[in-house]
């Protein structure tokens, strides 16, 4: 898939404020500072589409970007950041939960995992919960350029093994790096294949 256009549409604080349309949506979420904004910019080939920050929790709203005028990339607030107040953090998580559970135009959720780390409980628990929602999800292991390919593969294997404690089959996953552009083609191909299928198919 070639990205010809990527345009910011709107930011929504909750599900009821999300756009009323039939565009298929592909959401991206992960623990704070996992490299989500950098990945979104890589996919769109626009350096400033999503705001990149070293400060965790920068994304606080549900952000919609129209891609190629036909489908939507949705940037969801990260989970697990400590900089927001407890009240705000609960609100953001509640909005994300409502979106993931009830958004009818959502086709797939891409969950970003830091490839350098051992399985983090917050990631595993989020995926366990996401498995109860009626939506497909795919894993993207980020920051692969920060270590050797062998180490990345070993860490991925450990993470996937952790998921077998409650999931029979491992999910589809990709390995990415915003620096080397690894994974960009794989992710966009997955989106393209999903778009070719009827909704719910």
- What is the share of helical residues? 25-40%
Q: Specify the number of helices.
A: 5
Q: Could you name the CATH homologous superfamily?
A: P-loop containing nucleotide triphosphate hydrolases
Average of the residue pLDDT scores: 88
- Briefly note the CATH topology name: Rossmann fold
Shape: globular
The string of secondary-structure elements, in order, is: EEHEEHEHEHEH
> How many angstroms does the end-to-end distance come to?
20 Å
Write a short abstract of this structure.
The chain is α/β, with parallel strands linked by helices and 201 residues long. The protein has five helices and seven strands; from the N terminus they run ββαββαβαβαβα. It has helices spanning 36-44, 86-102, 121-130, 149-163, 184-196; strands spanning 6-12, 25-30, 62-67, 71-75, 106-114, 136-142, 173-175.
Question: Main attributes?
Answer:
alpha/beta; globular; 7-stranded mixed beta sheet; 21% strand; 5 helices; 201 residues; Rossmann fold
Account of the 3D structure:
The chain is 32% helix and 21% strand. With 201 residues, the chain is α/β, with parallel strands linked by helices. It has one domain (6-187): Rossmann fold. A seven-stranded mixed β-sheet has the order 1-3-4-2-5-6-7, with helices on both faces.
Write the topology of this structure.
Elements: E1 6-12, E2 25-30, H1 36-44, E3 62-67, E4 71-75, H2 86-102, E5 106-114, H3 121-130, E6 136-142, H4 149-163, E7 173-175, H5 184-196
Parallel strand pairs: 2-4, 2-5, 5-6, 6-7
Antiparallel strand pairs: 1-3, 3-4
């Amino acid at each position: 898939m070639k990205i010809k256009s990527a345009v910011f549409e709107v930011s929504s604080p909750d599900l009821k404020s999300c756009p009323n349309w039939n565009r298929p949506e592909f959401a991206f979420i992960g623990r704070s500072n996992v490299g989500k904004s950098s990945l979104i910019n890589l996919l769109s080939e626009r350096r400033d589409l999503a705001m990149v920050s070293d400060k965790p929790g920068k994304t606080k709203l549900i952000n919609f970007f129209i891609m190629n005028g036909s489908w939507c990339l949705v940037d969801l607030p990260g989970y697990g950041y400590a900089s927001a107040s407890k009240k705000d953090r609960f609100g953001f998580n509640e909005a994300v939960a409502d979106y993931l559970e009830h958004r009818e135009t959502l086709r797939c959720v891409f969950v970003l995992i830091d490839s350098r780390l051992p399985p983090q409980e917050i990631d595993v628990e989020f995926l366990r919960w996401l498995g109860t929602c009626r939506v497909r999800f795919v894993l993207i292991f980020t920051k692969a350029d920060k270590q050797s390919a062998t180490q990345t593969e070993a860490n991925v294997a450990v993470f996937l093994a952790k998921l077998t404690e409650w999931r029979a089959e491992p999910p589809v996953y990709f390995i990415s790096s915003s620096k080397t552009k690894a994974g960009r083609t794989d992710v966009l191909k997955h989106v393209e294949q999903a778009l070719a299928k009827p909704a719910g198919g």
